[in-house]
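Exam revision sheet. Question 4 asks you to relate a sequence to its structure. Input first:
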Amino acid sequence: MEKLSDYTCNPEYIDSWNKLMVHQNILMETLNDHSKPTKIQIEGLGDVDVAHLRNHVGVVQEAFDLRMRLTAYWKIVLRRLVDSMALHLLFSLQNLVNKEMETEIINELIGPQGNGLERMLEESPVVAENGRGSRTASSCSRNPRMSFPTSWTELELMWTDYD
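Answer key, structure tokens:
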């Protein structure tokens, strides 16, 4: 849309362009007064040598305006590119998770022979071992004569007694 008209709804563009256009009067004074130095300081561009522009004073204002518009708009273009890349990355990740990984997860749940859910419901050896230990520990807590260990050594001795 901006290619077809001189319009943008970004207020930062106008502010940036106005700050850059302040230097136009300094440029014109430098070009018209040959006793002044040929380098001027422009915010965002640094030191600019304008000696070669003294031969083209008729188009300098228009060229300066165009250059300042491009400089002001370039910040917006860069931000749009970064936003576009971030949104594309987010879209690609969502697509990966929602479509491609979904089929892999479903295939893993169902399993090659349709027994994926049954495999999930089976108790793993680690869980089975931990369950046996917790049953032993709960039986220890029911014994009123038992006391809690005060050191690691006592704890290790207590566990070896019950194994």
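Marking note for examiners. The first helix runs from residue 11 to 21.
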